[in-house]
Amino acid sequence: MKQRLAVIAGIVIVLIVLTGIFSPFLTPYTPDRPVTDQYDAKGINIASLTEWKVPVQGLMSDGTTVDAVPKLTAEAVKREVLRSAAGADGGIVLRAVTRGNTAVVLRSGDVSAVVEVGVSADARSPQLSQLFVQPLEAPLAIGDTVAAALSGVLTDGTRLANSEAVAKQAAAEGAGKEKKADNGFVTSDAAKAQEGLSYESLTPLVVGVTPEGEISANRNGTGIVKVSAGQTASLLIVPVGAGIAGGAEVQAPVLTALTLKESYASLEDLYKHQPPSERHPFGTDHANRDILSRIIAGTQQTLIIGFVSVFVGAAIGVLFGLLSGYYGGKLDMLITRGADILLSFPGMLLAIFVIAVLGPGTINVILAVATFTVPIFTRIVRGSVLSLKEMTYVEAARSIGVKDSVIIRRHIFPGTLSVIMIYLTMRIGSAILIGAGLSYLGLGADVTAPEWGAMLNAAKNNSSGLLFPILFPGLAILVTVLCFNILGDGLRDALDPKLKD
Question: Regarding the domain with residue range 2-37+275-499, which homologous superfamily does it belong to in the CATH classification?
């Protein structure tokens, strides 16, 4: 089972190495530029994802509808989430600013409607979007009374068929709003919602209206009653007698309600921290750079730090180990005491000390990681040489006058290769982990570079509360280090059977 895992780990490592080598050709986006700067080249229309032209029409008192609603305005409850602007051909265009949900109040004169917009967020509980008052079938006579018949539509498209359902919905929305006092917690007018329904006569001389919605005719003319529910409002035209108001005939149709083909839109925040999607499988970071592209590009730099630092440290450590184990004496004591001193420090602490002396930078990170690798290989190779130099073939070579340098190079060093290969593989994983740790602490390479540890550092400082900017670079480090450790463990069992459990 262990050997099978080692083979799988080896295959994964080969894929990671190939990814590092060909990373410039594999990144779907340029890793150091915001993705929005690259969308045009990829045929992605940003406006279609971040803007919504509200499909609003006006319902007139004669039953007709108009596309060009006069003096139409829009106000978002949360202005930090959404901005509104006039469209090129009229109407209202809503533009996403940042993630969140907000209601938008559309208003023209005394009538209003509500749309809900989610920007990279799920929809909230549906609220009243459109309010309609059924027109009267015939003019009233003076003294007549009539009750307003209402219907409505919620932001999720659900229809409310009668006044009772509308009143219940409006009361629920009003109860759900926090009532702020004048002690510093006052919401904007657009955010205030009334509890239940409210009725107001805009022509009190012609018609009156009770709080329960009962309309009474007072004199001849054309009465107008405003009905409000939450943040929506509509008008009811009430003709009384001859339909004369203030001595002037009302002939032009009056806007009574706003109608919407759609009352909910889902937009995207494309300017930072895009969540994982088909377009960006790992999402984007605080600078709106594609995380997948940065992980792929960072593979090269991460592997360079791991491989180069271990090979440099191993080369120096193997040399010291060969000299110490073969010659012994004062040289052995000097080298082993030096190795013991270095090994007395934790690897990360020793690397931090080296960086503190040399300063940050990729080359200095490699030197820092190599520094704590040297004593490990020195001790391992020295122990192997102490046993190899007592072998018969070494004694025979020494007895016939073969030079020490030749004996070390041809007879002793080849005997240490198996143990060197084992620990070389295992130390690469540790070196990658130490290098990423230094970058995470801000002691590594350029903090803007696509290196896995630097990505974790940037996510820690700029992406608090979000999981994916930290998750994917962390998984890249975990998988790479784990595969190197498993491969090294498998090589140990294959090359040195005596070390098997």
Answer: MetI-like (1.10.3720.10)
